[in-house]
Structures are given as structure tokens and as C-alpha cells.
UniProtKB/TrEMBL annotation:
InterPro entries: NAD(P)-bd_dom_sf, P5C_Rdtase_cat_N. The lineage of its organism: Bacteria, Pseudomonadati, Bacteroidota, Chitinophagia, Chitinophagales. Residues 6-101 form the Pyrroline-5-carboxylate reductase catalytic N-terminal domain. It holds the Pfam family F420_oxidored. It comes from the Bacteria. This is NAD(P)-binding domain-containing protein.
Length: 133
């Protein structure tokens, strides 16, 4: 059995974020979910754990806490929120893989200079994470 990765999904409650979470829950991953809509993300976490018995999912109150514990950070937030989130996680995202699904990597790289940034679609995130191990 391969090592379990801890993945923070910031923006987990929107449509793309939820799809990413559901896909990652089927792998050997521990998911740390954060979204501004706390109730919606709790419903998502419950849906994932009900549908995938082996899923390990935790809802966190702050993107910094989720990112601090994570091996990989997925930014599934709208473009206009990525700068604010990047500023909140900058100190804890050092030397971590940060995957964005909306924003150009170049702009985020300036905000997260000590992170490895990759842009991916919801379909390719799981393979990128697997290759990062």
C-alpha cells in the first residue's frame, strides 16, 4: 500500500471543488476541506464519507490550518479569491505542491515563491498528485 497523502482543497464547496474532492476521496488520500460556506462543505464531507467508506475527510475552519497540515494544496477558488488565499497560506505552503484550476501559474508563483505551482484541470489533478509522491 502506498503512503497516504494529505491534500488540502481550498474552495471545496463550489462545483469544481466538490468534484475534485469526490475524485480524490477514492484514492489513498486524507482530505482537508475548507470553503467559506461552512454548511455546504460539511454536507460535502458527509456525502463523501457516506459514499466512500474508506475516505478520510476533515473540515477545517481556516485555509492556513488546512494548508499547514497538507502535502499538496489544491486551490479550487475563483480567480478573484486566489490572491487573498495565497497571502493567507504563503508561510505554510513552502516546498509544497500547489495546484490551481483557475489562475495562471505565473501570477500565483510571485505570491507563493517557495511553492511548486501547477495548473491542472479537475480531470488531471489525481494523476499530478500521484506523480508527485
Amino acid at each position: 500500500m502506498s503512503t497516504k497523502q494529505t491534500i488540502a482543497v481550498i474552495g471545496a464547496s463550489d462545483k469544481k471543488g466538490a468534484a475534485i474532492c469526490k475524485k480524490l476521496a477514492t484514492g489513498n488520500n486524507r482530505l482537508l476541506l475548507f470553503a467559506s460556506d461552512k454548511e455546504k462543505v460539511k454536507v460535502l464531507a458527509n456525502e463523501i464519507t457516506t459514499g466512500t467508506e474508506s475516505a478520510e475527510v476533515e473540515v477545517l475552519e481556516c485555509p492556513t490550518d488546512a494548508s499547514w497540515e497538507a502535502d499538496v494544496i489544491v486551490l479550487a477558488v475563483p480567480c478573484d479569491s486566489e490572491k487573498e488565499i495565497a497571502e493567507k497560506i504563503r508561510e505554510v505552503a513552502n516546498q509544497k505542491l500547489v495546484i490551481t484550476i483557475h489562475h495562471p501559474v505565473e501570477a500565483l508563483q510571485q505570491l507563493l515563491p517557495h511553492s511548486k505551482l501547477v495548473k491542472a484541470s479537475t480531470e488531471t489533478i489525481q494523476s499530478i498528485i500521484q506523480n508527485n509522491k
